[in-house]
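hey can u check if this looks right to u? its 202 residues, i copy pasted from the old doc so theres a chance i mangled smth
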Amino acid sequence: MKYKCDICSYIYDSDAGDPENGIEAGTDLKDLPSDWVCPICGIEKDQFFPLEDERVGSEGEGPMALMILALTHGLWTISGRGSYSVTREIGRAFINELKKDGVKFTDAKSALESVKEYFIKHKFARDMEYAIRDGEAELEIKNCRFFGLCRQLENQGVLITTCPYTNTSAMALEESTGYRYRISKEQKGYGHKIHLKKVSKI
């Protein structure tokens, strides 16, 4: 039987098990240890659902992630830090979608709350916590759908980020405050802690 993660679409195949994490072949989802989590995003096993058609898998997810990985790595190789202006457009694209839904970016708190609601609704992550103080914002993304992809890029020395939360939050703050924000982030669990610092007036 195959089961699909509700956050990152990872497929747990009970016939194959999860040998990298000590789970033998033939172990059904219900028989996994209580502390087992998705090896991609870290979500608990009760967030997996059975695939009725066992031919359905993550075939689309793998090539898409590979394409994003290759494009981001190539962009960094060619343009280095000059790539930031390109990756910021990821955030602008999501902001435009939120505007279509009637979201008004009137202040920093409501702007980040709208970003949080959007990404959780679309199952990009399980949760997103944020705090705003003294012209800065801190975000903590939990059980991120893109964690594995970001980790691979970081291991390859790619310093730009295609993270949708980071870029969208930065653009949301820019829309609501009229200031540009500098992005920095660090790995935390199966997600990232993101720091956004106000740097200059638009």
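Confidence is low (pLDDT under 50) at residues 54-58.
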